[in-house]
Specification:
The chain is α+β, with helices and mostly antiparallel strands. Helix content is about 35%, strand content about 25%. The strands form 2 sheets. Strands 1, 2, 3, 4, 5, 6 and 11 form a 7-stranded mixed β-sheet that branches. It has a 4-stranded antiparallel β-sheet with strand order 8-9-7-10. It is globular, with a radius of gyration of 19 Å. The chain binds adenosine-5'-diphosphate (ADP) and ligand LJ64HWYM. The ligand N[C@@H](CCOP(=O)(O)O)C(=O)O binds next to helix 4 and helix 5. It comes from Brevibacillus choshinensis.
């Protein structure tokens, strides 16, 4: 080993929040950690059950992304000792690939002597992930509203908002994986004018409601016609939860990212209890194994520590 060990902590995230397809992301206090150090030989240590099955050689996403950063900086790609863990499950719609990309870019950038700014890293992460919602939230924390620029290679325009005070999420995480790629492939190529207008209105109202802390509007504002109706066939229980959540304690509900996790916002203990009972009834009715997590928004985004070795 030689030089500094960089330890990066990255929040998981939920994307879309219903109507904001590929545009809205919210970071959660649920973290993955990437440690990276230059070394004589590349080693990849994956700690914990969530990363089981992830490759432990140079085909690992973390190594691949780090190597790309060194190349982009015009530096030789070093051998790397990488150690990673994740409290967030993979392929469940909680932004694990975005967190991995952000973590690897930020760690490698530090080892490379910080050739890129945070905004440039966000731009690189967005192009690698294909959309800015999860990577924005993992990078900057809070709520990120972003869109792809018209001009190739231009900076990604975004605004970060602080989450409304008291907003919490009950997330229902089915035991089965659903890759983002598969869940994107069920979406249509073309939408009706009515559906597009519906989503423009709902997404706009949602951003305004989040900016002003209007939790009372979330239930209406989180309606979506662009992705959830098509993905419902892949996620048993989704339609029932979306239809019934606000009558059972939720401020609003959505598919988390591409799924299969389902997100229900709440703010009081009474709402949480009511919701828990409701989602248990729905999921058990569909015979689906799942777990529930209560998650708070993360306000800080990716965090870096440097240890001298
Ligand atoms: N820490 C990690 N190390 C290596 N690969 C990872 C890591 N985290 C996620 N991935 C990759 O990302 C994939 C999951 O991405 P995706 O299908 O977009 O689901 P999601 O981002 O919703 O968890 C995993 O199958 C794995 O290939
Ligand atoms: N906007 C994307 C978000 C994918 O999120 P993930 O957490 O499932 O990777 C989409 O809806 O496809």
């Amino acid at each position: 080993m030689n030089g500094n060990l960089v330890r990066v902590t990255i929040p998981a995230s939920t994307a879309n929040l219903g109507p904001g397809f590929d545009a809205l992301g919210l970071a959660f206090q649920l973290y993955s950690v990437v440690e990276m150090q230059k070394s004589e030989q590349t080693t990849i240590e994956l700690v914990g059950k969530e990363l089981q099955g992830t490759p432990a050689d140079k085909s690992n996403l973390l190594y691949q992304i780090a190597a790309q950063l060194f190349e982009k900086a015009g530096l030789p790609v070093p051998e790397l000792a990488i150690r990673a863990s994740s409290d967030a499950p993979l392929t469940r719609g909680l932004g694990s690939s975005a967190a991995a990309i952000v973590g690897a870019l930020v760690a490698a950038n530090q080892l490379a002597g910080e050739p890129f700014t945070r905004d440039q890293l966000f731009e690189m992460a967005t192009r690698l992930e294909g959309h800015p919602d999860n990577v924005g939230a993992s990078m900057f924390g809070g709520i990120v509203v972003a869109t792809m620029p018209e001009i190739a290679d231009a900076p990604i325009p975004f605004i970060r908002l602080s989450p409304p005070v008291g907003l919490q999420a009950l997330v229902v995480i089915p035991e089965f994986p659903l890759s983002t790629e598969k869940a994107r492939n069920v979406l249509p190529q073309v939408y009706s004018k009515q559906d597009v207008v519906y989503n423009v209105g709902h997404s706009s109202l949602l951003v305004a409601a989040l900016a002003q802390g209007r939790l009372d509007l979330l239930g209406q504002a989180m309606g979506d016609r662009l992705h959830q109706p098509y993905r419902a066939e892949l996620v048993p229980g989704l339609k029932d939860i979306l239809d019934g959540a606000t009558a059972h304690g939720a401020l609003g509900a959505a598919l988390s990212g591409a799924g299969p996790t389902i997100l229900c916002f709440f703010s009081t203990e009474e709402e949480r209890e009511q919701l828990q009972e409701f989602v248990d009834r729905v999921m058990n009715g569909h015979g689906i194994s799942y777990r529930v997590m209560i998650l708070q928004p993360d306000e800080h985004g990716v965090q870096v520590e440097i240890h001298q070795t």
